[in-house]
Amino acid sequence: MRTSYREGLKRIAPVAPASASFGIAFGILASTAGFGSLAPIAMSATTFAGAAQFAAVSVLNDGGTVAAAVVAAVLLNARYLAISVAIAPAFEGSRLRRFLESQLIVDESWAVSQKGGGRIDRRILVAAGLLLYPCWVGATALGVFGGGLLGNPERFGLDAAFPALFLALLVSVLKTRRELVAALAGGTIALVLLPIARPGVPVIAASAVCLAGLWRR
Amino acid sequence: MSQTWVAVLLVGAFTISFKAAGPVLLARRQLPARLASAFELLGPSLLAALVVTQAVGGKGGIVLDARLVGLAAAVVALALRAPLIVVVLVAALATALVRLV
Fold first, then answer.
1. Chain A contact for B76, CB < 8 A?
2. What ipTM did this prediction achieve?
3. What are the sequence ranges of the domains in chain B?
4. Closest chain A residue to B15 measured between Cα atoms?
């Protein structure tokens, strides 16, 4: 049965370079957004979820409050609650072991470990997560170092990197018509609130769209 | 403690608990289907809002500047199925070039 750990490494290997480059981007953008050098690395080591990390950095960078940044990032990561509950039966062993292995749940490791019917292969998820984790944290450190050398972020168009990055992430999560409608509604809410609400609030308000998910079904 | 660290620690603590919740606490229980279905919409709606605020947000509300050229370049890169890092670099480069001229 050991082969499926190896299978996990094999499946995640093509994804690892993309994850590393995403980590470098996070390190650069977070450090040039005034996050210092240690905080971005600590965030990658604890949160280990790219989109939410970028969301927190960008809300703070826009002058939003800590509360707004945390709420936006936490809402973005709420899907991990749904994922972790859904795949819980796959985990085994002691409580500590289940806790440690659960921290290896990220979109990529979850995606490559699918067995069909919403079930996952735990070994594949663990192996994939174990490879991605050092890539992610190490790449963040590399980016922080690189960002320190760059200086003024606007000169290199780094402020335009944020919307491009979120757009790329958005495109990758749009699979159904419902999600497309949710995205259009969320974007519209943000645009309407942008001139009148405090920084960070338009993003949080956009999450109200998910209330529509409570009605349907 | 600085604002940055408060945000880092809180987001980290929440995310760690979310990931651990299923395997550690709730083995063999299920989230209500309606709640799971609502969670599915959080990603698309929040990411779209982040695209908007990061592309046109600025002092005093909406600011239209060189970032939009970068975003347009990103759309082209995405349409060509470029990897994420290329999309980001293309956007930054296009914006930097517009600012040079």
1. no
2. 0.91
3. 1-57, 65-101
4. A47
